[in-house]
Amino acid sequence: MKFADIKVIAISGAGTMGSGIAQIFAKKGYQVIVSDIKEEFLDKSKNLIKVFNSSLLEEGLMTKEEEEKVYENIKFTTNVQDFKDADIVIEAIVEKLDIKQNYWKEIEAITRPDTIFATNTSGLSVNDISAKVEKKDRFIGTHFWNPAHIIPLVELIRADATSDEIVDLLKEVMDDIDKVSVVVLKDAYGFIGNRLQFAAFREAVNIVERGIATPEDVDKAMKYGPGFRYPLIGPLETADLGGLDTFYNISSYLFEDLADTKTPQEILQKLIDKDELGVKTKKGFYDYSDGKDEEAIKNRDKMLFEMLKYIYKK
Ligand SMILES: NC(=O)c1ccc[n+]([C@@H]2O[C@H](COP(=O)([O-])OP(=O)(O)OC[C@H]3O[C@@H](n4cnc5c(N)ncnc54)[C@H](O)[C@@H]3O)[C@@H](O)[C@H]2O)c1
């Protein structure tokens, strides 16, 4: 299949991710079919897509015409047989290995032999997910980041059998929908983004646990220090600019003292035991009572939109 042949995108799972991914493709003019197991989940997805559109319109990141296109181009279904003409199937169903494996077996029996199969798993092995698929060369991971209609990155994860042709084709598709793609050359837990994110998270928790700094100052240090650079200069570019000899010298004494725990830290377990799970229970490292939860989400989205506008301008 060539890029020009790709017209129909089937998305399974009308949840947080499936809805966002559907919105992106429909906005670009692809024919999108979204499936879920119950009508009520499809109704939720329709509402969610309206919310995404209204915030993009409000921010001037989408036109009224594009909004109309989104509604015109998405068909919702509970009948997976409607996927039979799909050029790409993107699976965003529950993160359970056996369910995903059986799902793909079912999809292979319905679709064409050249249909591209993409899983949006957060971190399961793409090889394992494709275990029951016969024609594995067309199987790939496409890890969109949440919220998918805002975050530019999509990680393309090669499984052992994924063909070069499929990787190249998916890169073209991601360019077309204005996403920035990176290729994960081997199926590794956490891909690239979550490996980096969780390395920083482990150290952030370690700093708090050891009393080196407060949660407020850890977050502030990241936002106004290393994090201030990261949207523009990645960690390896930073090292090149700083001098690899200097980075080597710092690594030689600092690595020794950094967190290297193989299990989640005790402080996290304690917070979880107290049902302090963050925004969703109104307490975590911070307090989110009295409307501070909604404020935190609003502020985050507002800042992400500003970043997106900056990236579009570049
Ligand atoms: N939420 C995130 O931050 C995030 C980010 C990146 C990747 N992911 C991954 O994306 C996938 C979906 O996550 P989500 O957060 O959108 O989940 P979600 O729970 O919001 O949505 C999943 C949807 O899949 C539906 N579903 C389950 N089995 C199905 C089937 N057989 N056919 C069709 N639909 C089915 C469910 O009814 C539900 O509506 C998971 O693999 C998850 O790990 C999530």
Describe this entry's structure for a reader.
- It is a single chain.
- With 314 residues, the chain is of the alpha/beta class.
- It has two domains: 3-184, NAD(P)-binding Rossmann-like Domain (Rossmann fold), CATH 3.40.50.720; 194-313, N-(1-d-carboxylethyl)-l-norvaline Dehydrogenase, domain 2.
- Helices cover 49% and strands 12% of the residues.
- The chain is built from 13 helices and eight strands.
- Strands 3-2-1-4-5-6-7-8 form an eight-stranded mixed sheet, sandwiched between helices.
- Helix 1 packs across helix 2 and helix 1 packs across helix 3.
- The radius of gyration is 21 Å and the shape is globular.
- The two termini are 32 Å apart.
- The mean pLDDT is 96.
- The chain binds nicotinamide-adenine-dinucleotide (NAD).
- Nicotinamide-adenine-dinucleotide binds at residues 12-18, 35-37, 41, 92-95, 103, 120-122, 146.
- Nicotinamide-adenine-dinucleotide is lined by residues 12-18, 35-37, 41, 92-95, 103, 120-122, 146.
How is this structure best summarized?
With 314 residues, the chain is of the alpha/beta class.
Instruction: Estimate percent helicity.
Output: 40-55%
Give the CATH H-level superfamily of the largest domain.
NAD(P)-binding Rossmann-like Domain
How many domains, as an integer? Answer: 2
> How do the strands line up in the largest sheet?
3-2-1-4-5-6-7-8
Named at the architecture level, the CATH assignment of the largest domain is: 3-Layer(aba) Sandwich
The chain-level structural class is: alpha/beta
Largest sheet: 8 strands, mixed
**Ligand kinds:** nicotinamide-adenine-dinucleotide
Number of discrete helical segments: 13
Strand coverage percent? 5-15%
Quaternary state of this entry equals single chain
Low confidence ranges: none
* Large-scale geometry: globular
CATH topology label of the largest domain: Rossmann fold
Strand and helix order: EHEHHEEHEHEEHEHHHHHHH
Rg result: 21 Å
Q: What is the level 1 CATH name of the largest domain?
A: Alpha Beta
Distance between the termini: 32 Å
Compute the number of strand runs. Answer: 8
